[in-house]
């Protein structure tokens, strides 16, 4: 990988719901990029402290001054919940890349019967209409296989790192997990990382 490719400017948009660990995943990926020698700016766009509220964050690579993202500007979108992926599509540039969980966490309105959760076929077709590359992964299920539903976030991060879309790979993410996550969380997240890597091989 040339230095020019490593320093290519890129905007990554993260979206999920409160309680999923979306911001933790953003921080981990930003630290991975820093360890890889990239210029990184990251920040929270919108966050809800209560469980179930929408959480949005960004990571900008390649020399941006502030973590600002407008509609139609994201090169890559990481969706930790499929409905939030659908809602976040306006931020993706035409031909951008979507990596999303396919495991739903219905919001309160759906649970109360006040709203209807769209079917996955609609969500996926909407994403494919905009994205040049699009992959939906059963992250929560794979996280459960690794030993913790929460580690499904690492499955998603690993898959996008393995895809070659980002200017660093799975090895860089693995090193960041070993360096920055508490020892008690490393084993399950390393298992999740391997499952995410296998998604791309499969």
TrEMBL record:
Pfam families: POR. The keyword Heme does not apply. The keyword Oxidoreductase applies. Residues 18-198 form the Pyruvate/ketoisovalerate oxidoreductase catalytic domain. It comes from the Bacteria. Keywords: Oxidoreductase. PANTHER family: INDOLEPYRUVATE OXIDOREDUCTASE SUBUNIT IORB. This is Indolepyruvate oxidoreductase subunit beta. It comes from Desulfovibrio falkowii.
